[in-house]
Each structure stands twice: as C-alpha cells, then as structure tokens.
Design a protein that fits this description.
Radius of gyration: 26 Å
Shape: globular
Number of helices: 12
Mean pLDDT: 91
Distance between the termini: 72 Å
Strand content: 25-35%
Length: 490
C-alpha cells in the first residue's frame, strides 16, 4: 500500500504544480500577438505551419503559439523572447506532438520553465543583433523640439495617438539600420514619405513576404516561388511651376475637372521621375544586381494636400484620378434599363493651365519596365492608431470611430456601402492590406503574377476594357474620429 500512496501523492503534486505553472500564462487574441511580431514570421513557415492559438506570460514578455504541421499532420509549439534589439524571435520549440491539446499543455509548461530560468534578456539574445537598432521614437537630447515635424510631434506626444506609438515602437527594431537618414527624416522633414514606407513594410509582411531593405529600390519581397521589388514614392505639394496654383474644387463639376487633369499630372510627375532615375553607375531601378530580371513595382500615395478643419486630406478623394492616368482611359457609366453600363473611353492628354501631358503612364517609353503600380489611401497615422487599438493599446478614456465606404457587391451599385464602426469593438477586424490596390501594367516586360497578391484589390486592362478583382472586405475610403472623454465638472 505504501508505494500506491506515494504514487498518489506524486500525482497530486504534479497536478498542483501544473496548475500553478499554467496560472503564469494566458491566451492572446491574434491581433495582440501579431502586434508584437511584425517581422518574426518567415514566409516558408507560413507554408508548413498553421497557427492555432497564441499565448504569453502575464506580463507579455514571453510569447508562444501552438501550430499544426500541415504536411505531417502533427502538432508543435514555439517560444519567442525579445532579442537584444527588442524583436520577438524563437528561442525554443517542440514538434511531432500527437494533438493540439498536448501541444498547448507543453507550451504553457515551457512558458513557466522560461520564467523560472529568469534573465529573459540573456535567454533571448541571438548573437546577431545590430549594434544600434532602429528606434523611431527616440529623439536626441540636444534637438530643438520646434524643429520636429508637426505630425511626428503629434505621434510622439498626443495621448490619443498612444496606439500608433505602440505600433511604431514594435516595427522600428525590425528595420535595417543601413539607412542612416531614415529616423532623422521620419522625425524632421519627410514624415509622410517615411510613414508610407512603414505602412508598406507592415502590409507586405502581413501578406506573407520576407522583406529585405535595399538602398534602392526600397524593398525586395520574397516568398517560396515569388520574388519582386518595390520602390515607394509619394505625391507632395508643388511649390513652383504651373501645378503650384492648386485648385480648390467647390462643386461636382470643379471636382471632376480637378480629378481629370490636375491630379493625373501630380501622379504622373512622381511616377515618370522614377523611370529616369539612375544610380552612380547609371543603372535604373530594374537594372541593378539585386533587381534585374524581377518584377518591379512602384508604390505611390498622395500626401500633396493635408486635411484641415474645412476639408479632408487629398488622399481620401484622389484615387479615382489614378486609374485613368495609368491606363490612358477614363471610365464612364450610365444606367440602362436598371443595369449599370460601364465603358472605357480613351484619353489623349491631361491639361491644366498651359501644362499638357500625355495620358497613359503604362504606354510611356520605359514604363514597360514597371510591372505594376501599388496604391493605398491608408498609409496614415489613423491606420497606425486603428491597428494599435485592435491590438488592445487604445488610450484610456478615448473612443476610436471609423466611418467610410466599403465595397458594394451589387453589380449595379455606383456607391460603396457606408459604415460607422467602433474600432475597439470585439467584433471589429482590420488588416494592414485592406485598402491596398494593385494596377497591373498590360505592357510589362515582366508581369506581376496576379496570384502573388491574392486578397488585394487588383485592376488590369485587357481588350479595351477595365477589369477588376475586388475582395468583399475592401474599403474604398475612410476617416477615423478620435473622441476624448472628459470627466464631469464637480
């Protein structure tokens, strides 16, 4: 009887120990976990592993997840700790386990063991960290605060933008420290341009690509069987020349004229300048060693007119000018017997004042080297705030409302479906890539495979007709309203 009692006591002790260990871990929502690991996942791992649940210790200093090996149909877990640069990376794993439950127990046991070992910084060290990781929010002590970009000051100091700060803080350490000007330009004189690059990096990583930051173009994107490069550019205000006389549309006719002529010139200026740009060796973007014989994508965003108290920023309403300029056709529609009839009409040119440019960027000499143009109207602080809110980093006593228009699946619809949603609602979902649009070049020497960016809104032109692939979740445009609660007066 004594051995049996001893065995029973050991079982009880083991059970209590496991209960105590498992009290040290908690389940995370996917958005929370994703917030912490913007650059952790490798593209090959996405092919072989299906993530099933996400966990952390109570302080979220240790992360872990349970996965299923989709080829071996067994299970495993992985532990992540911050390395010396602040990035969550793998430090321990198990595989070939018989069930999800078995793997979950193993993961929670491993989190407890990791805590018990202590010195998480030493456990997380990988030995390959950069000497000076990128910290986008650290301002040198000798800097005059009045010299900082006004939008960066808002990001840095505004209580309402705490969610965006949380997001930027996690992305920064993943950026290559090879560009010594990135942080300085982000903080001082090129905030919009650099935020656009951060947004693209986050969206492309979310889509499953491994990203290498190059000197030029900006990104090399890779996944199994996929390789393409991306150069980011932005539309900025014109300070001289004929486009400096910025029109201010007051009615529908003036807006139509603005989108038909002024904005194609603004998009055309930045896109065509990329066709002629050369490095010190006289090579264009697609002729360099890293990019030769690979699809080349230009990613453009419009920051030429900022929002003010009277009007929205230009990026919220100028996207309809891009398609007609790229393809050299404008879209006209009319209702015929209750059905929407859409036709593409050839544009010859765009004219504003005395300035005239030919329509059809993809028809211009040299543009055949551009595989596609990528566009989004969401590379803004508002997007970073929303992504931070859904990860659980909303500022206390603040409400984040998003209003806009989503895709209307009705084939006869001429307007999107309006929506207004609380970003902090448990039912709200959003992803970095929701607003991305890809415009394929029909004349490309090296086309971009449509399947590589499946899930995005895609446009292409064939047989004189506009064609599109638009997912149900696509958002045409939106604004974010941040409301601060104030305590009642006593």
């Amino acid at each position: 009887m004594l051995p049996r009692i001893a065995m029973g006591g050991a079982a009880k002790f083991k059970k209590k120990k496991r209960q105590a260990d498992h009290a040290l871990s908690k389940r995370l929502k996917p958005a929370r976990f994703n917030h912490y690991v913007p650059g952790t996942r490798k593209s090959l791992a996405r092919v072989y592993a299906q993530e099933l649940s996400w966990w952390s210790d109570l302080d979220e200093a240790i992360l872990g997840f349970v996965f299923r090996d989709v080829h071996g149909d067994d299970y495993g877990w992985q532990i992540l700790l911050r390395d010396r640069a602040g990035r969550f990376r793998s430090v321990d794993l198990a595989h070939s386990l018989k069930s999800e439950d078995y793997a979950t127990v193993g993961l929670r046991d491993a989190i407890a063991r990791t805590l018990e070992k202590g010195n998480l910084a030493e456990q997380g060290s990988q030995g390959d960290e950069p000497n000076e990781p990128v910290d986008l929010l650290r301002v040198p002590g000798d800097v005059d605060p009045s010299k900082l970009h006004p939008y960066f000051k808002i990001l840095l100091e505004s209580p309402a933008n705490a969610p965006a700060r949380a997001v930027v803080r996690e992305i920064g350490p993943w950026l290559a420290p090879s560009d010594p000007h990135f942080v300085q330009e982000f903080q001082f004189n090129q905030f919009d341009q650099r935020l656009w690059e951060l947004y693209l990096w986050a969206a492309l990583r979310e889509l499953g690509f491994d990203i290498t930051q190059l000197e030029a173009p900006d990104f090399m994107c890779r996944a199994p069987g996929i390789e393409f490069c991306v150069e980011a550019t932005t539309v900025a205000p014109s300070t001289s020349g004929p486009l400096a006389a910025h029109p201010e549309p007051k009615n529908n006719e003036e807006m139509k004229e603005f989108l038909a002529n002024y904005m194609p010139m603004k998009f055309g200026s930045v896109l065509t300048s990329k066709l002629s740009k050369k490095d010190a060796q006289g090579r264009r973007y697609w002729e360099r060693d890293d990019t030769k014989d690979k699809p080349f994508v230009l990613a453009v965003a419009d920051f030429h007119k900022r929002a003010d108290h009277e009007s929205s920023g230009s990026m919220t309403f100028t996207q309809s000018a891009l398609w007609p300029y790229l393809y050299g056709h404008r879209v006209e529609w009319k209702m015929v017997d209750g059905h929407l009839n859409v036709s593409a009409i050839k544009n010859q040119e765009h004219k504003f004042g005395e300035k005239v440019i030919p329509s059809g960027f993809f028809d211009q000499p040299g543009a055949e080297n551009v595989s596609a143009v990528l566009f989004s109207n969401a590379g803004t602080l508002s997007k970073f705030d929303r992504m931070g809110v859904i990860a659980g980093f909303a500022a206390q006593d603040h409400t984040y409302l998003r209003v806009g228009h989503r895709l209307n699946p009705d084939p006869n619809a001429t307007m999107g479906i309006p929506f207004a949603e609380d970003v902090a609602s448990p039912d709200y979902t959003e992803f970095w890539s929701d607003e991305l649009q890809i415009f394929h070049n029909p004349n490309a020497k090296i086309p971009l495979d449509h399947a590589w960016l499946s899930g995005l809104t895609q446009f292409y032109f064939a047989d004189g007709e506009q064609n599109s692939i638009i997912p149900d979740h696509h958002v045409w445009g939106s604004q974010t309203l941040i409301l601060a609660s104030t305590p009642p007066k006593s």
